[in-house]
Specification:
The chain has a single domain, classed as 5'-nuclease (Rossmann fold), CATH 3.40.50.1010. The relative contact order is 0.22. The radius of gyration is 16 Å and the shape is globular. By secondary structure, it is α/β, with parallel strands linked by helices. The strands form two sheets. Strands 1-6-5-2 form a four-stranded parallel sheet. It starts with a strand and ends with a helix. Helices cover about 55% and strands about 10% of the residues.
Length: about 180
């Protein structure tokens, strides 16, 4: 199996898994790929493409958004300093996370796919074979378990994984 990379103008897949980088780019207006990811999201919505989402994707998306929002508003101290010393300062961002998650859930036909107990072994194999980070390897294991090959991402880390068809607006992946 080989890996394929398509831009967001390509024909839509039957099902598409979202990486957290795609969701972060939708939610965070200052993100590099905000507009193309948001436009693609609305295209998926209009066409009714089913989108499985795992708890790990939401977990990573929420974490990254908390960090980005806190660093945008509070230039110092760091996110971890705020979290440990003044966690109430993060409270306004939690409502944003809830609102964003509801918006995404209401707009696109998506469903949750949970991690199977055996996914850890597949994730470890993927980490070893393709040198992926744990969260990305788990995402690949979930995709394999759910028989999904299409992935919306702006993250170049998935390019060495054969059998994954990537949909992206990241020029680095499109030009390789």
């Amino acid at each position: 199996m080989t890996m394929a990379v398509f831009d967001f103008a390509a024909a839509l897949p039957n099902r598409l898994y979202w990486d957290s980088s795609f969701l972060v780019n939708i939610a965070f207006a200052a993100a590099k790929f905000h507009k193309p990811c948001t436009d693609y999201y609305y295209l998926l919505k209009a066409e009714g493409v089913p989108v499985p989402v795992s708890n790990l994707t939401l977990d990573e998306t929420w974490y990254i958004l908390l960090k980005l929002e806190s660093e945008r508003i509070y230039e110092t101290p760091t996110f971890w300093d705020i979290y440990r010393q003044e966690p109430d300062r993060l409270r306004p961002f939690l409502k944003k996370l809830r609102d964003f998650t509801r918006k995404v859930g209401a707009a696109v036909p998506y469903y949750f796919c949970w991690n199977e107990a055996g996914s850890y072994d597949q994730a470890l194999q993927t980490m070893e074979k393709h040198l992926l980070l744990p969260r990305d390897a788990y995402l690949c294991a979930i995709m394999q378990d759910q028989e999904i090959s299409a992935l919306a991402t702006t993250d170049t880390d998935f390019t060495p994984v054969p059998g994954v068809t990537i949909y992206t607006c990241n020029g680095k992946m499109l030009s390789s």
